[in-house]
Amino acid sequence: MAEVFYQPKGTPLRVGISGFVGDDANINADVVWDSRQFYATFNSDFDITWYSLNWRLGRGLTLFGSGDLDRSSSLGLQYFWGRRNFSTNIRVSVDTDETINWHLNQRFGNFYLILLLLMKIRRHWRS
């Protein structure tokens, strides 16, 4: 097993590569960009390549995406607002499986409300 890490001084970039050689050889690559406004990861091995990103657009508002390069991906918006005994988290995303995902998490003191709605997108084609 071997590992190599690289992080340029003064940047939010981190890169790591690890490998294992034996009966089942495997190499993993991880790239991370971790700044205050933007966080992204890219991970790959012999089987799959996946990513995630979070881009802070404003106070409480985030654009996010995740998935893998071979199968499915999703992209959406999230809004969070909270105080000591109260918080609201609203998340809407659409994925490559043509599903819209709605999430609402609401907290009032010790009371929690969690709603999840999945809607399949229907396409109507004209011949």
What is the total number of structural domains? 2
> How would you write the strand order of the largest sheet?
1-2-3-4-5-6-7-8-9-10
Poorly predicted residue ranges: none
User: SSE string, helix = H, strand = E?
Assistant: EEEEEEEEEE
Proportion of strand residues = over 45%
Q: How far apart are the termini?
A: 57 Å
The 3D shape can be described as extended
Number of helices: 0
Broad structural category: mainly beta
Mean pLDDT: 89
Task: Tell me the helix content.
Answer: under 10%
Number of strands: 10
Radius of gyration: 19 Å
The biggest beta sheet is recorded as: 10 strands, antiparallel
Describe the structure.
By secondary structure, this protein is an all-beta fold. It has two domains: 1-46; 53-126, no CATH class. Helix content is 0%, strand content 69%. The termini are far apart.
Write the layout of secondary structure elements.
Elements: E1 2-6, E2 13-20, E3 26-34, E4 38-44, E5 49-58, E6 61-68, E7 73-83, E8 86-95, E9 99-108, E10 111-120
Antiparallel strand pairs: 1-2, 2-3, 3-4, 4-5, 5-6, 6-7, 7-8, 8-9, 9-10
